[in-house]
Design brief:
Elements: E1 6-14, H1 19-37, E2 42-50, E3 53-61, H2 68-82, E4 85-86, E5 89-90, E6 95-102, H3 105-111, E7 125-132, H4 141-158, E8 167-180, E9 183-196, H5 202-216, E10 228-230, H6 240-243, E11 246-247, H7 252-255, H8 276-293, E12 299-306, E13 315-319, H9 329-339, H10 344-351, H11 386-392
Parallel strand pairs: 3-6, 9-10
Antiparallel strand pairs: 1-8, 2-3, 2-11, 4-5, 7-12, 8-9, 12-13
Length: about 400
């Protein structure tokens, strides 16, 4: 985004009950089941959800203990946790069709380490990472607040005191911020569409949401009532997979940076860490975040590229977008390659990715989340390279 002048920028988020996010959750549920049984399992799971029907499809390589019956059971528990027990989509009686088969031998021979050959990338592709100083988690502010609004709604919907009584799992948010010289200063509009029980009218839903949204935004940022749009169609009772088909990987901009940074195009959910679409993007975020956290720049975009079956990245590119603080980008590229082994094996070992840690990533973004050392989640959000980066650049 521009660092001078005044402009508006918009990002959106979707809840865990959005059909595409239900699909992401189920794909990552399959992945975690395999990694819990064998940390070196191979998984590429795509999920389709529609009216009372789930299809789990893709390729796997792992222990036979992860049976179709087990995956069906885990899928039902995930749907129950999201909150779907509706006539058109229920954890109790939805048909769950498991169509997973063995990983292609042609792909496996390129990825597997054999003899003097190290583990190769699971596919060709480009991956991006980004960080900026707009929020405490070094994420773009529009996406951060769009996620936060929906997470607050979800927390209240699930709470025992039913602070959001009548609201159902499917929801979307969108926020437009006004920037002045690269800094967000206010929200000019907020859009929230949320599924609700029959009998709640638009004004009642708006009254429920207004205090939640206002509390999520910085003081004084809440736009006027005319720019606070709630369920603009007027009614949102039929939702989730019953209202719209969902597919894994259709919310990749929501998953990353809300459009504030480039995206390589590859989805994350359902892919084990040999797939550099996922692990490479996590490595890029990790390095970009550490650069900004070290005070070397206000913004950092990082790109790496791979070829299938080849272990080392073909390129590493850093763009500080004119915000670098006496840092040469070419030198920084070299320093980052010294600090982290960017082979698929190096990434997954450095970030400890061969663990069942992926279900929590399936909603509200893969980045800007708090790392949990005990659970192992969001290890790519750590800033443990900051001392080395500061030393390398004399800070």
């Amino acid at each position: 985004m521009r660092s001078t002048g005044e402009y508006l920028f918009t990002s959106e988020s979707v809840s865990e009950g959005h059909p595409d996010k239900v699909a992401d959750r189920l794909s990552d549920t399959v992945l975690d089941a395999y990694l819990a049984a064998d940390p070196y399992s191979r998984v590429a799971c795509e999920t389709l959800v529609t009216t009372n029907h789930v299809v789990l499809a893709g390729e796997t390589r792992g222990p036979d203990s992860v049976s179709a019956e087990k995956l069906e059971h885990l899928a039902r528990l995930a749907i129950k946790d999201i909150g779907y027990d509706q006539a058109g989509f229920s954890w109790r009686n939805a048909t769950i069709d498991v169509r997973l088969h063995r990983q292609s031998a042609d792909i496996a021979q390129g990825v597997d380490a054999t003899g003097n050959k190290d583990e190769g990338a699971g596919d060709q592709g480009i991956m991006f990472g980004y960080a900026c100083g707009e929020t405490e988690g070094l994420m773009p502010a529009p996406l951060y607040y769009a996620h936060l609004i929906l997470r607050r709604i979800s927390e209240l919907r699930r709470a025992a005191d039913r602070g959001a009584a009548g609201l159902l799992p499917d929801a979307k948010s969108q926020i437009t911020l006004r920037y002045v010289d690269g800094k967000p200063v206010e929200a000019t509009s907020v859009v929230v569409s949320t599924q609700h029980e029959e009998g709640l009218d638009q004004e009642e839903v708006k009254a429920l949401l207004r205090p939640i949204v206002e509390a999520a935004l910085p003081r004084g940022w809440m736009p006027g009532d005319r720019e606070f749009y709630v369920n603009p169609t007027g009614k949102f009772v039929i939702g989730g997979p019953d209202g719209d088909c969902g597919l894994t990987g259709r919310k990749i901009i929501v998953d990353t940076y809300g459009g504030a940074a480039p995206h390589g195009g590859g989805a994350f959910s359902g892919k084990d860490p040999t797939k550099v679409d996922r692990s490479g993007a996590y490595a890029c975020r990790y390095l970009a975040k550490n650069v900004v956290a070290a005070g070397l720049a206000e913004r950092c975009t990082l790109q790496i590229s791979y070829a299938i079956g080849v272990s080392h990245p073909l390129s590493v590119y850093v763009d500080l977008q004119g915000t670098g603080r006496d840092v040469e980008e070419a030198r920084l590229e070299g320093t980052l390659r010294e600090l982290m082994d960017l082979t698929p094996r190096g990434i997954r070992e450095h970030l400890r990715l061969n663990r069942p840690i992926y279900v929590p990533t399936s909603a509200y973004g893969h980045f800007g989340r708090e790392p949990d050392a005990e659970k192992g989640t969001f290890s790519w959000e750590k800033t443990d390279l900051v001392p080395q980066l500061k030393a390398a650049f004399g800070r």
